[in-house]
Amino acid sequence: QKTIAKIATCLELRSAALQSAQSQDEFKLEDLKKLEPILKNILTYNKEFPFDVQPVPLRKILAPGEEEHLEFEEDDEEGGAGAGSPDSFPLRVPGTLLPRLPSEPGMTLLTINIEKIGLKDAGQCIDPYITVSVKDLNGIDLTPVQDTPVALRKEDTYVHFNVDIEIQKHIERLTKGAAIFFEFKHYKPKKKFTSTKCFAFMEMDEIKPGAIVIELYKKPTDFKRKKLQLLTKKPLYLHLHQTLHKE
């Protein structure tokens, strides 16, 4: 288990290296290849691990719906909505951002910069990141799901990201009634799993260049947008900036 957890750390380091503009002192492909014999002999490997890394904490992987049966959330806002959300998910290493699609004449691509999110307990969130998805009215994915890297910093009542998301479909090809969802997720050490704290969404008529702030809603994430409850009465929002690219 320790060896697998250290391998997971190396994979996170390699993922971070691929997303970084600076290449010096990063985890290289040659380093990653040193892990191959360890993986092949994982059950019998007893030598010293080739890299001085700390194991990624072992985190419980929950089946869809399993979180519903756990105890009540201790941090629900404004009285809370009851038991933990059913939208828990297997652990994915944050930072699965995709590059911009090739441009096409007459078609529009959208880049969304996630600037920051306002939360009353921003400083307490561990390893926070945002999952971005594009759903139709039935909650079906229209593009691949992307996770931001873990937030840059926490400051006062804000968690700062400053990360660009490239929407993986031309705007003209999105179905009527589609929406872009942003799920704020963080790790809960007491329960040993990653949880969705709140979510926000942007509808097609809100796609326009420039800054936009959107409201935060209580979990579980309602992809069909039928029973929405604001997270809090306080004025807390997700701050975004949109850029449209058209040939």
UniProtKB/TrEMBL annotation:
<dbReference type="GO" id="GO:0016020">
    <property type="term" value="C:membrane"/>
</dbReference>
<dbReference type="GO" id="GO:0048264">
    <property type="term" value="P:determination of ventral identity"/>
</dbReference>
<dbReference type="GO" id="GO:0035091">
    <property type="term" value="F:phosphatidylinositol binding"/>
</dbReference>
<dbReference type="InterPro" id="IPR036818">
    <property type="entry name" value="AIDA_N_sf"/>
</dbReference>
<comment type="similarity">
    <text>Belongs to the AIDA family.</text>
</comment>
<feature type="region of interest" description="Disordered">
    <location>
        <begin position="69"/>
        <end position="90"/>
    </location>
</feature>
<dbReference type="InterPro" id="IPR025939">
    <property type="entry name" value="Aida_C"/>
</dbReference>
<comment type="function">
    <text>Acts as a ventralizing factor during embryogenesis. Inhibits axin-mediated JNK activation by binding axin and disrupting axin homodimerization. This in turn antagonizes a Wnt/beta-catenin-independent dorsalization pathway activated by AXIN/JNK-signaling.</text>
</comment>
<keyword id="KW-0217">Developmental protein</keyword>
<dbReference type="InterPro" id="IPR023421">
    <property type="entry name" value="AIDA_N"/>
</dbReference>
<dbReference type="Pfam" id="PF14186">
    <property type="entry name" value="Aida_C2"/>
</dbReference>
<feature type="domain" description="C2 Aida-type">
    <location>
        <begin position="98"/>
        <end position="245"/>
    </location>
</feature>
<dbReference type="InterPro" id="IPR035892">
    <property type="entry name" value="C2_domain_sf"/>
</dbReference>
<dbReference type="Pfam" id="PF08910">
    <property type="entry name" value="Aida_N"/>
</dbReference>
<feature type="compositionally biased region" description="Acidic residues">
    <location>
        <begin position="69"/>
        <end position="79"/>
    </location>
</feature>
<protein>
    <submittedName>
        <fullName>AIDA protein</fullName>
    </submittedName>
</protein>
